[in-house]
Write a structure and sequence with these properties.
By secondary structure, the protein is mainly α. It has 2 domains: 41 residues, no CATH class; 56 residues. It has 5 helices and no strands. It starts with 6 loop residues before the first helix and ends with a helix.
């Protein structure tokens, strides 16, 4: 729905989302939505499910958050054709072996 707003109004709305999100929270945009102007700098962009899973694992490791693990597990179960080789490569590089094993349980 935000795509129908003017760009300045989109920036205002997204800026409000940035302030309202919990630390580690996510804002999911539709395929035709994008961030504009200064709000683009307020967010870290993940453009694929694999990177989102890895980010969730890093946050779970740092915060001991069961919610982050649950989110990563749900993504893995619901997204078809994940690049598991890519995920496992980055799990190794980021030292996420133990938390990734827990994700599979």
């Amino acid at each position: 729905m935000v795509i129908y707003f003017t760009k300045p109004l989109q920036e205002m709305v997204y800026s409000g989302f940035d302030r309202a999100l919990n630390k580690g929270g996510f804002q999911v945009l539709g395929k035709v939505e994008s961030l504009w102007g200064y709000t683009k700098e307020d967010f870290e962009v993940f453009d694929n499910a694999e990177d989102l899973i890895l980010a969730k694992l890093v946050w779970a490791k740092d915060s001991h958050s069961e919610t982050q693990l649950k989110d990563a597990r749900n993504i893995m179960e619901s997204v078809d054709n994940l690049d598991l080789k890519y995920i496992k490569t980055w799990v190794a590089k980021l030292g996420l072996h133990e938390i990734f094993k827990g994700l599979k349980q």
